[in-house]
């Protein structure tokens, strides 16, 4: 059985173009569960496979996504800004190098919305929905906007809440 699951996870990972996940830890802090994944450009497994391999705790719990996003996810973030906040993006792009602080703040203020729009978080939300959970508050450690390389967000923190039917 373990060999079959490992083979299935390997096959699924061959067809993933989004950010992949690798389980880091699942533990309790008091009564609240805490689930941590590494985000991987490759060498992880797709979201569906990661959730299938785990017994996800009951809601509510906290989730942390650590590490690097795939180029696809970074490009999705950049496209989100191009489509939804072009004025904020233009202000950032036109600011002189080294003087971008005040123009990054308006971009940072909508990062939770931008992250929720990515394939990565939509897939996580679908897996959570199957378990009667949903994405709650989303926060992050660091935001690095780059038009050439995509928009990078590290250490994403998600409060997972009960799904309101």
From TrEMBL:
<protein>
    <submittedName>
        <fullName>Uncharacterized protein</fullName>
    </submittedName>
</protein>
């Amino acid at each position: 059985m373990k060999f079959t699951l490992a083979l299935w996870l390997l096959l699924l990972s061959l067809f993933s173009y989004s950010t992949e996940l690798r389980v880091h830890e699942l533990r309790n802090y008091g009564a609240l569960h805490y689930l941590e994944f590494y985000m991987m450009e490759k060498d992880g497994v797709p979201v569906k496979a990661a959730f299938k391999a785990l017994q996800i705790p009951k809601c509510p719990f906290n989730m942390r996504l650590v590490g690097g996003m795939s180029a696809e996810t970074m490009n999705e973030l950049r496209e989100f800004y191009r489509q939804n906040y072009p004025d904020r993006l233009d202000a950032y792009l036109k600011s002189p190098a080294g003087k971008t602080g005040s123009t990054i703040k308006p971009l940072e203020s909508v990062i939770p919305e931008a992250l929720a729009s990515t394939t990565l978080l939509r897939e996580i939300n679908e897996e959570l929905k199957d378990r009667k959970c949903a994405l709650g508050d989303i926060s992050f450690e660091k935001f690095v906007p780059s038009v050439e390389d995509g928009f990078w967000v590290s250490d994403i923190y998600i409060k997972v809440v009960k799904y309101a039917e």
